[in-house]
Amino acid sequence: MSKIALVTGASAGFGAAISQRLVADGYTVIGAARRLDRLQSLKSELGDAFFPLVMDVTDAASVDQGCAWIEQQFQGLDLLVNNAGLALGVAPAQEASMVDWERMIATNILGLTRLVHVVLPGMVKRNQGHIINIGSTAGDYPYPGGNVYGATKAFVRQLSLNLRADLFGTRVRVTNIEPGLCGGTEFSLVRLGDDQRAAAVYDGADPLTADDVADAVVWAATRPARVNINSIELMPVSQSFAGLKIHREP
Ligand SMILES: NC(=O)c1ccc[n+]([C@@H]2O[C@H](COP(=O)([O-])OP(=O)(O)OC[C@H]3O[C@@H](n4cnc5c(N)ncnc54)[C@H](OP(=O)(O)O)[C@@H]3O)[C@@H](O)[C@H]2O)c1
User: What is the Cα–Cα distance from 134 to 157, expressed in whole angstroms?
Assistant: First the structure.
């Protein structure tokens, strides 16, 4: 019997690449997102092992219905990849949009948490399963304009660790994957709203690719059942750390 995985945000970027890699590894993958046409074109590439599922992670009813369908069709999940997420804007906190902040919190925190809440009891009951959350280096290292986006990913990191504390004594695994700068996805277009500004983010940088992230996810998922990968932080070689800044009065 092939293992069953739910990948959220499968219609683009990391989620599509993770779905491809998992199917190639023999998993049956349910790919969830809001854009059905994108999921259907992934299905035409991946075939019978891929099941498109329309799900808006910010909508409790949509998550509950989708997960109930999975339970009925597949009798539970072996792997949840909590990947759906977004950043909106790069304005400093004092100028940022509250609407953008609410949407990031609704998607990256509440959406991810809701999926954990729905899926975890079944995994604990079956005493097996793996939740892989997609965090970000933005959850570890502050940068100007990262404000609420980085804070949502810090939540993902701490939730992942706290889940492990609660799951002590079970065989359920939890991993947080924290990529740095990654190109070739819709992330910067969604964040900045225009192609030119989005392209400029990666100019000359040789960023990570969605396949690099999918590699990390599939590696963590395919370790022996006794091994829990707590976190993986990956960056392109071209990205490093900024120093602390000191503002000096003239
Ligand atoms: N790219 C990077 O540099 C980077 C670095 C670190 C971490 N990350 C994180 O990695 C994850 C994926 O990023 P990406 O680069 O692959 O971005 P992307 O290409 O924009 O893909 C985001 C995916 O999330 C889905 N999504 C967004 N809102 C949703 C909602 N309410 N319900 C269901 N699905 C939703 C989108 O599908 P629909 O629009 O069809 O719903 C899309 O499939 C995110 O959590 C992001 O924060 C990205």
Answer: 9
